[in-house]
Amino acid sequence: MRSLVFALALAAAIPQAHAADLIGFWDKPQHGGNSFNPLPPDQAYFDALRGYGEPIAKRLSAGK
Length: 64
Known about the structure:
By secondary structure, the chain is mostly helical. The protein has helices at 2-13, 43-49, 54-61. The radius of gyration is 26 Å and the shape is elongated.
């Protein structure tokens, strides 16, 4: 019984955590490494991508 009272008192003393307002993230444009261009990438893009993983660069350049 004593441990139950202690646990309840401890739980009441700990400040409650509140969820962050993450929807505000979308209020302004973000800049980063993702590429969402209106035109397909050219060969220079795939040549640069090759250093990050050749198998996927080959699949993308082959159109698969």
